[in-house]
Design goal:
about 90 residues; 3 strands; alpha+beta
Length: about 90
């Protein structure tokens, strides 16, 4: 498996009132710890981003562009760039 390269992308859409209840559950904490070893390996590039939207869900292509421009970015487990908040209009009309 070491010679294989791949890409993974996860997008979750929540109404603002439901997210804290999910995030604070033990199962989410377990998943974050479990995937931590994958996300922060030396040969991975990882982006994180949370932001409010106006009810429109961006396409996979738009999400990729938004993450690369605004997301918190780790390269090989090291923080390269802190997160910036996108303009909601940019995320919808990009």
């Amino acid at each position: 498996m070491k010679d294989r390269k791949g890409y993974g992308q996860t997008m979750t859409v929540w109404d603002g009132k439901s997210m804290p209840a999910f995030r604070n559950k033990r199962t989410h904490g377990f998943a974050m710890k479990f995937f931590g070893w994958v996300i922060h390996r030396r040969n991975t590039k990882t982006y994180y981003l949370s932001y409010p939207a106006d009810g429109t869900i961006p396409s996979v292509t738009e999400v990729r562009e938004i993450l690369r421009e605004y997301g918190k970015f780790y390269d090989g487990g090291k923080l390269v760039r802190k997160v910036r908040s996108p303009q909601v209009e940019k995320s919808i009309n990009a």
